[in-house]
Amino acid sequence: MLAPDLARKASCEDCPIRHRAVCAHCEGDELQVLEGMKSYRTYTPGEPIVWAGDDFNFVASVVTGVAAMSQTMEDGRRQMVGLLLPSDFLGRPGRAHAAFDVTAATSVTLCRFERRPFEALLRETPAVGQRLLEMTLDELDAAREWMLLLGRKTAREKISSLLAILARREASLSQQIPGGEIAFDLQITREAMADYLGLTIETVSRQLTALRRDGVIVLTGSRHVTVPDYDNLAAEAGDDADGTQLT
Amino acid sequence: MLAPDLARKASCEDCPIRHRAVCAHCEGDELQVLEGMKSYRTYTPGEPIVWAGDDFNFVASVVTGVAAMSQTMEDGRRQMVGLLLPSDFLGRPGRAHAAFDVTAATSVTLCRFERRPFEALLRETPAVGQRLLEMTLDELDAAREWMLLLGRKTAREKISSLLAILARREASLSQQIPGGEIAFDLQITREAMADYLGLTIETVSRQLTALRRDGVIVLTGSRHVTVPDYDNLAAEAGDDADGTQLT
DNA sequence: CTCCGCCGTTGATCCAGATCAACGCCTGGA
DNA sequence: TCCAGGCGTTGATCTGGATCAACGGCGGAG
């Protein structure tokens, strides 16, 4: 593991984000390579980034906004399989075709690297590969947590789980006082929430109303949520206490 | 990528399985390390291998049998999040505690490596790390496929999907004639199937009966399945044709 | 300003799968 | 040999969430 101060070296500072996959382990030489590869692109809400099966010749980090990874069946049933938030990594080194659809959920800016040179970097710089392995293992754990949600949780627990995740993320970003209330914006529509949770938009709406009625959350408009008591929300989510602690 | 003939070198041949994570990239020196680390252990059906949260100081490959990775909620609801079949890798380099319960579904033999020296091997041998990254990315894709199943498929589609996966695996193992019928044993109980699919055992049983009634499968006893027409089964599973082709 | 389309909410009804219950078969132990 | 317990099946009933339907608010285009 490199010392933390190495993470900020040289031209990584030019980039509006810290690429989790590469920057934490960058040293001078690799950065030269990265500089030549980088390109930014912004997508408008709803715009497809790639379709499943398409050529997929770049990897990328999310700089701002939210992108959604999803699968659709022939009859239109859709399941979101990943929500990509700023600093998340998108792409599949070693595979030329996308396995899933990726769509901009909000306005999204990606910092993209061409796949081939990125793969070369991966081969030549084991630290980047190790970091990517760690990130992938974390994602796999998260996907497995999500399988419990999809397979066994009730609609109310599903909504509560999603809100708890967003609240945790907000709290960690803004250094909230533990025990204080947490407020954040739902960046996504009811439809995206439904696709993520394996529900319909009507059920999402009804359960949000029910959680508001029961005082678990406060809804200001339809997109702004305040969580007066995080532990209460976490209890609604039906999670074991482990791994969902705020601090 | 190493040439295929390197995969069989030296003492890897002593091992009853080819460790997907390491053997395909072994060269002389690393094998010395591996030899000192290996230990075998057999678990009886139902026996826990690790509990979520436990110290987890080894990684392993499945030699024979089936192990199940699962999560349980306080009230007993359970969701299986992975089925570990021979040659699958178990463990999480870089983490000292298990994230999920792992249980022997049948009699299972593992070939285990202590975690610490394995991590050292990983650091010193980038090829092993790359192989592990590839495997992890494949697992992540599989987990995401499973999310579609759990979130959006009907009970009949869920059962058909599981049978189609098992049939595909059987066909690839036994070099079946494409288009011919495929026969295999369900290694697992109805309960394990239910836990995997996010259903109850009664629903699993009823849907199997329905698929038999409709001629999609032939059930001999309760554990032996014959699939007369794979394409028919795949159609019941509701999958896109891509990625579920037999050949 | 008005109109239109999208987003979200709410109500009425339906149904797939859960739940509750009973039973048959097989296996292993006394 | 018989019994007990685990596994699987089937039937009856219930219910959580899907479906079908209507409506209100808001924001952008004209």
TrEMBL record, chains A, B:
Key words of the record: DNA-binding, Transcription, Transcription regulation
Highest taxon in the source lineage: Bacteria
This protein's record includes keyword Glycoprotein: no
Alphabetized GO MF terms: DNA binding; DNA-binding transcription factor activity
Gene3D superfamilies: Jelly Rolls (2.60.120.10), Winged helix-like DNA-binding domain superfamily/Winged helix DNA-binding domain (1.10.10.10)
Domain annotation HTH crp-type: ranges: 153-231
Residues covered by the Cyclic nucleotide-binding domain: 41-139
Annotated GO CC locations: cytosol
Record's protein name: Helix-turn-helix domain-containing protein
Lineage: Bacteria, Pseudomonadati, Pseudomonadota, Alphaproteobacteria, Rhodobacterales
